[in-house]
Amino acid sequence: MIRKAALFALIISLILVMVSFAAEDVRIGLVTPLTGDVATFGESTRNAAQMWVDETNAKGGLLGGKVVLFVEDDRNIPAETANAVSKLISQNKVITVVGSVASKCTLAGAPIAQSSKVPMITPTSTNVTVTQVGDYIFRACFIDPFQGTVMARYAYQNLKAKTAAMLYDIGNDYTKGLAENFKKSFEQLGGKVVASETYGVGESDFSAQLTNIRTAKPDVLFLPDYYNSVGLQARQARQLGITATFLGGDGWDSSELVPIAGTAIEGGMFSNHYAPGSSDPIAQAFYTNYIKRYGSAPDALAALAYDAFIIVGNAVTKAGKLDKTAIRDAIATTKDLHAVSGVLTFDANRNPIKGAVILEVKGGKFVYRDTVNP
Ligand code: PHE
Questions:
Q1: 295 burial class (0-12, 13-18, 19+ CB within 10 angstroms)?
Q2: How far is CA 39 from CA 7, 137, 255, in A?
Q3: Residue 7 — pLDDT band, cuts 50, 70, 90?
Q4: Dist. CA 10 → ligand 1 center (Å)
């Protein structure tokens, strides 16, 4: 009888020990536009995130715990991003939020993460003000003052353009900021912006603005919006007889750009974060595994989402505990971290220092042209 009781007590205490040692789940949130006007951005982001989570769990997770991903669709609408971030933090109890894609959305969600002291890292939001929201806000991409300079220099020095026109969305932080950065650099170099036309969110007829641009006869036309708008703008510009070379930024990166624009976008060039073909083993594994899993090549959004998760995973391991402040501190001190889009080190403003690639639309494909380092 006594023996039985002792055995029973032993079993109970063993179970208790096991439970107390079973590591906690690592809950990570992702907010991205899975539907709406830029749905390919959300799809690429989610694909890469899910791939990283599965790979990490197959290797034993983080700190012995399983990684659990909570995904929210913000439809590329800032108010939805704010709701999603609140939900991920208060209901899903995530230790970090990855997202969103568009700067205007991340800018709406970041104040909530900041005031809740939950680290947030956007894979792709390039507007300079995003990480200025506070010390819990990070990004995995370069910023628009750099991207604007890259394209201005390319236009002036490589393409020998002397005049440029711009057409941009006045209500979009990314588009507006990138246009301003391009103008500043292009004029500093000695070029002249001969026409600057704007429109509002959701507009799809650009003929009035493009007619003014045609009169100004620019060498290049800078179109710093997302693929859906750029596709229409390129078509309408060529229909009006504009012959300028089209230039743009990372917002062009979508498998939908060419289907929307048709041949009008041929010869167009844009700055981007990633081009396949790196000899780095991490980049190579990412590229092959992504194709194997999803049947198409990864774009910059996929690469940067994967990198944002590499940064978070590395920080959790370095922090050694699921403590949000410790994870924040570990992200901030990320140094020489090998990721898909390069070797990452954060500067004092929580932005990684990294280069850009320039791609050209040729035969309906994105062809690598150049790399520009800061
Ligand atoms: N940089 C864009 C923004 O800040 C988002 C984006 C990044 C879109 C990369 C496409 C590719 O809004």
A1: exposed
A2: 59, 24, 11
A3: low
A4: 58
Average pLDDT, the chain: 95
272, 296, 327 — which closes off a domain? 272
Ligand 1 binding pocket mutation candidate from 32, 125, 272 (most atoms within 8 A of CB): 125
Q: What is the DSSP letter of 310?
A: H
CB 40 less than 6 A from any atom of ligand 1: no
Write down the pTM of the prediction: 0.93
Q: Which atom of ligand 1 is nearest to the CA of 122?
A: 4
Q: How far is the CA of 225 from the centre of ligand 1 (A)?
A: 9
Ligand 1 close to Cβ of residue 124 (< 6 A): yes
Amino acid at 266: E
> Residue 193: CB within 6 Å of ligand 1?
no
Element housing 220 (H / E):
strand 220-222
CB count, 10 Å around CB of 57?
16
Residues 32 and 68 in one domain: yes
H/E element holding 315? helix 300-319
Number of domains in the chain: 2
Cβ of residue 76 lying under 6 Å from some atom of ligand 1: no
Domain check: are 226 and 167 in the same one? yes
C-alpha 293 – ligand 1 centre gap (Å): 24
299 pocket-lining for ligand 1 (C-beta < 6 Å): no
Distance CA 360, CA 99 (A): 27
Place of tokens 């956007």: 122
251 lines ligand 1 (CB under 6 A): yes
DSSP 53-104: HHHHHHTT-BTTBPEEEEEEE-TT-HHHHHHHHHHHHHTS--SEEEE-SSHH
pLDDT band at 13 (very low <50, low <70, confident <90, very high): low
